[in-house]
Structures are given as C-alpha cells and as structure tokens.
Design goal:
A 5-stranded parallel sheet has the order 2-1-3-4-5, with helices on both faces. 57% of the residues lie in helices and 12% in strands. Helix 11 runs parallel beside helix 13, helix 13 packs parallel to helix 14 and helix 18 crosses helix 20. It folds into 4 domains: 127 residues, Rossmann fold, CATH 3.40.50; 139 residues, Reverse transcriptase/Diguanylate cyclase domain (Alpha-Beta Plaits); 107 residues; 102 residues, Homeodomain-like (Arc Repressor Mutant, subunit A, Orthogonal Bundle). By secondary structure, it is an alpha/beta fold. The protein contains 21 helices and 10 strands.
Length: 511
C-alpha cells in the first residue's frame, strides 16, 4: 500500500512542479492533496493523516515551522516532514530539528536530491511500518496468551493483570462462546471463523485444545445479562457457514470484567455438555437456558449389559433392538451425564466384540466386525452411540444367524417333521422351543429361513389342508372337523379356512 504525501506551498507553480517532476508512484507514494498555507495544511493533515508532508517555510497566514510546531504539540510525532525554503539560514534548520523534521531542501529544488530524499523517507516509513506490524503481532500474541490464562482461571502476573484491566475497559461486558470442532476440520473452521469474526473490535479467538476453541466477545453496549443481539447474529452467521461439517457451540454467562472471564468459560462448558442430547448440529446452546437442567446417573447399567448380551446368546434380534431402544429412551429421559453415557456404550461395544470373538474361529475374516471409537472422541452424541449399537447389532446377528442356521440344518428338518405330525394338537412356538431347547425367536427365524413362511402360517396351512380332506369325506360336522384339526374355537377355524380357500366350509363341500 502506497504512503500518502501532502504538498504545501503558497506558490501554485511550485506545487505543480513538485507533483509532476517527482516520480511519486515509483518511490512508493501517492499525492493525497495539495494546499497553500499552514492553517489549511493542519486541516488537511487532520483529515487525511498523511505519512509525509513537504512544506514551504515562508507562507502567509501560518508558515511551515509554525504549522509543524502545532502539529507536534497535538501529539502527532509519526508524520515525516521535508522543509522547502529559499533561505539557507542555519537557524531555520536548527529550529526544524527541534520539531523532528526529517529532511531539509533548498529552493530551487535539485530534482535528483529531492528524489533521493523522498526515497530515503519511504525506506524509513517502510521500516517503521514493519516494526509497528511486528509490535502489533507481539502485543496481540501477548493478549491472546494472557487471555487464555485468564480463561483457564490461572493467577496472572502484574503485567498480565494490568493488560486484562486495560482490555476490560474497551467493553461494557464480556462473554465466552465455546466451539467444539474435530481436529481434522479445525483448519477449515479457523478460516471461516476468521473470515466472519476477525477484524472486529473486542473479539478474541483462542484455541484451548485440539478440538475446542474459545471466542471471547466484548459487548460495547450496556444491557441485560444476556448475549447481545450483535454477538448472537455473528454466531448464527458462523453456525450457518459451518453447516457443511460438525461443530457444537455454547454460550456462557455474561461477565462485567475480563478478570472473571473464566466463569463464562466454565458455564459455557456446562452448556456445551447438553449438545450431547441435541439432534440438530451447529445449534447454539445458551447457559441461561439450561443452567437449571442437571445430569443424573443411570443405576441399571449392569442389567442393561446382561440384557444385550443375553439377546446375543439367544440370537434374539428383536430383544436386542428393544434393549438398545430402552437405553436411548432411559438415557435421554434421565439426562445421563455425557461422559457416563459414552463410557457405558463404549464399554458395551467392547463386551459385544469380546462375545463375538468367542463365537468365531481364530482365522475368521470377521474378527474385527465393527469399529469402536475412543473415549476422547468428544463429538460423539447420544444419537451417534445408539447408531453404533444398532449398526454393530445388525452385523453381529447376521453372522450369528448364518452360523447357527448352518449348524442347525439337521434339527430344522426334525422340527418340521414334528410339526407335520402334531399340528392337530395345541402346538405353539413356545412348546416347540421347550422340546428342542431353542429360544422361541431363534426357532422362529430358523423355520422362516427353511420354509419361507413363519410357524403360525405353516400350522394353519396344515390344519386347513386336513380340514379340506375331511370335508370331502362328508362324515363330520364342520364344528367336529374344526376340533379334529386342532382349533379350540370354531370362529377361528372359519376365519383361517376362508382366508386360505376363499370360501366357507359349506361352500367347499358343494364344489
């Protein structure tokens, strides 16, 4: 970015010559304005804040030295001045040195000397700009380091305390928004956050750990102890821009000073925990809304583990699904602490894997049937964990049923033979399971795989088929046939018969 130069001389031809003869652009400058006396020069300096001023000494209303003296008196010591004069009086030069005048050129100007002087001014300004930039970076780093210590509640040094006190005065109140984002997505998150939030006064973005960031926001307008509308709008804008990947955001309590900013961070952490139960990603949790919502402990974890493992042992997929649904409902209803919920589900997944390993041959390709997350994966929600239980259940039961069906091919034929022999009795799936020492759900799945239909469907088909044979003999009443084929209730027999034959028993006799 070019430096700004202001030209001041009461002779128009001299101003025109300065503008035309000197290659300002190649020297890194742009002429921002020209004027004809010191009083006007002061006004333009206040308005334009030039980096370099070339000014004649002898001018009406206010001469160049008077103008420089007044400018310095106002506290402006960074502006560079080059004096132009037709007088070679040393007293002028000595007085000019008192006001930190950088250059001194005699009229008529030597173009080469003037160009050299301006080039030197440009180099000095560039060096000062670099030093200023480095200083600003160093100060910002010191602010960020001290802010992080304050967020963590650490005791600050005297210098750090003074710095926090100075920063506190720039806003009426302060608040923390915690943002949880996966480590692998932090770079993209940081770019978006910087684009939306950086460059605004009173905002500090501080990385607390690999997956957690604090946004410290200063509210310059006084108001109630709630997040200012301005800050919330910025956060909502950020949340919308983050819709492409998973983040969780939470706002803490409002504090009047940065000396207490750790309180806002602590309350934001409490609010962030509740994102575990929120189905909507990128929502903003507010401590003011959930401060009275407490987490609880779940006292039935041992029973839940036994129920899940028992369903695996019995190859009872329906009971497994029911157990997982109960885990979700009870955890959500009781608002179990996220850390406890994560530990329980991950422990349960390890128990399921251990059981499955015991069912497999050592050289089985299914040895690692499903992945188990680490406990430090903080972004896991209840929905994620329940989804993992359902997913691993589908994999496990597919394997167990496949293996058990393979082993039970012989016994299935034996069961079918028994059904064909005893269908006229009060046969139930429960009685069959007791006779063949199999769980009812498992037995039902075996029969479906073998026969293509369920136990009850097979039973009714056999009974109706026998009823048709007896009806053709025309020796028994319909009610007697109903009893002979195994129905205790005639209406039940009639319903099943009409369903399969498309007509009543009497109609069937006439065919």
């Amino acid at each position: 970015m070019a430096f700004r130069a202001l030209l001041i001389d009461d002779e128009p031809w001299a101003l025109e010559g300065l503008q035309l003869w000197i290659p300002w652009e190649s020297l890194g400058f742009e002429v921002c304005a020209m004027c004809g006396n010191g009083a006007e020069g002061l006004e333009r300096m206040e308005e334009l804040q030039p980096d370099l001023v070339m000014v004649d000494i002898q001018m009406p209303i206010m001469n160049g030295l008077e103008m420089i003296e007044e400018w310095r008196r106002r506290g402006n010591w960074s502006t560079k001045f080059i004096i132009l004069t037709g007088y070679s009086d040393f007293e002028f030069a000595r007085k000019a040195l008192k006001f930190k005048v950088s250059g001194y050129l005699l009229k008529p100007l030597d173009e080469e000397q003037a160009e050299s002087e301006i080039r030197m001014m440009g180099m000095e300004l560039m060096k000062e700009r670099e030093q200023l930039y480095i200083g600003q970076i160093a100060l910002r780093e010191q602010e960020m380091l001290t802010m992080k210590q304050a967020l963590l509640g650490k005791v600050l040094s005297a210098e750090g305390t003074q710095l926090m006190q100075s920063l506190s005065q720039s806003a009426e109140s302060w608040i923390v928004c915690l943002v949880q984002v996966s480590e692998k997505e932090f770079g993209r998150w940081s770019s978006l956050a910087s684009e939306i939030l950086n460059g605004r006064d009173g905002i500090y973005i501080i990385r607390m750990r690999n997956d957690l960031v604090s946004i410290v926001f200063g509210d310059v307008s006084p108001g109630p102890q709630r997040t200012s509308g301005n800050f919330r709008k910025q956060l909502e804008t950020l949340a919308r821009r983050l819709a492409g990947f998973r983040t969780y955001m939470a706002i803490g309590s409002t504090e009047s000073s940065l000396h207490h900013i750790s309180n806002s961070r602590i309350t934001a952490e409490k609010a962030l925990l509740h994102a575990f139960y929120e189905a909507e990603e990128n929502s903003i949790m507010d401590y003011a809304d959930i401060q009275n919502h407490d987490f609880q402990r779940h006292n039935q974890q041992v029973e839940l583990i036994e129920r899940v493992l028992g369903a695996l042992q019995l190859i009872d997929y329906a009971n497994y699904q029911s157990a997982v649904e109960f885990i979700e409902q009870s955890f959500r209803q009781m608002r179990v602490h996220p850390d406890e919920a994560r530990k329980f589900v991950i422990y349960l997944l390890h128990e399921i894997r251990a059981y499955m390993r015991a069912q497999m041959a050592e050289d089985s390709e299914n040895y690692h049937m499903f992945e188990i997350p680490d406990l430090d994966e903080e972004l896991l929600t209840l929905d994620d964990l329940i989804g993992m239980l359902h997913s691993c259940g589908r994999v496990c039961f597919e394997f167990l049923l496949k293996e058990s069906v393979f082993e039970a091919q012989g016994i299935v034929q034996e069961i079918n033979d028994y059904i064909h022999t005893h269908y006229q009795e009060g046969l139930t799936i429960k009685l069959l399971s007791e006779r063949f020492f199999l769980h009812p759900a498992y037995l039902g799945q075996l029969l479906i795989r073998k026969n293509g239909i369920g136990f009850n469907e097979l039973l009714h088909n056999l009974r109706v088929e026998e009823a048709c044979r007896l009806l053709q003999m025309n020796q028994y009443k319909n009610s007697e046939i109903s009893e002979k084929v195994g129905y205790a209730n005639y209406h039940h027999f009639l319903k099943q018969f009409e369903k399969r034959m498309g007509m009543s028993p009497n109609e069937y006799k006439k065919t």
